[in-house]
Amino acid sequence: MTTPYFHGEFFMGAPVSTLRIFPDLAARAMPANTWPMAEESTIRTVQVTRYVTPLREGGSLPAIAEADDGFLYALKFRGAGQGVKALIAELIGGEVARVLGLKVPEIVLATLDSAFGRSEPDEEIQDLLKASVGLNLALHYLSGAITFDPTVTPVAPDLASSILWLDCLLMNVDRTVRNTNMLVWRKELWLIDHGAALYFHHAGLPGVEGAARPFAAVKDHVLLSRASMLADVDERCRAILTPDRIREIVALVPDAWLESETTTATEGRQVYLDFLETRTGNSHQFVKEATDARNALV
To answer: Which CB contacts under 8 angstroms, 24+ apart, belong to 32-36?
Structure first.
């Protein structure tokens, strides 16, 4: 999964060309220090009120949208691409990263009304909006953010190791040189787009079985060469990501995203609990895998 709409010169997802058409976007993004301070293990829900513009570079056709709180979001649709599984991975991945002390734009649930988009002239977009009625997912804009370039921005070994540990835990295949899925904002590194993580769920595997799979894609991670503190980070992250904390994060996933014709929400939620608890408890395995890949690289 890629999100080219965060690439190149952009305003937190909006290409410069888009901002020339919609010059008010930058003024209407919410600075991080004004985000609502939610209690731990809660997530806000907003109502999408205006479809601003599609971000056509991405295959899943995300969009810039305005919500009833007056702010703009990068909106990802349940009716696109990998459907709600990508949204589940985005939510769990982003909130695990946040718990570990990494920076992630605020994630919100975004409700799309059935009447929304009826006046949309583009048939492809209208079909997507119709298929996405209900709960979707969105991330806040970071005003003035730029794409992380590994040749320009230095990353400390501790931070690089923490991000690598996260992506090994989540089996996130989409943090490569080609597609870093990281932003630099106010001289700090922010993580975006975890929709390609937890890819075991696309194969319908049980959580425990999925957790035991090797993560060969670690050899392509953009920060692999800088992640020289994996052992130290492993100890710290395991201490933070307790079973109770994992349950709090997975509890954020809406029931509607977990239910299917053959699975209840409780059963679906247990798959992710089993995966994360098993994989965290056996983190030494993916740490060794990452360390071996790094040794082969450097």
So the answer is: 32/105, 32/106, 32/140, 32/142, 32/185, 35/106, 35/140
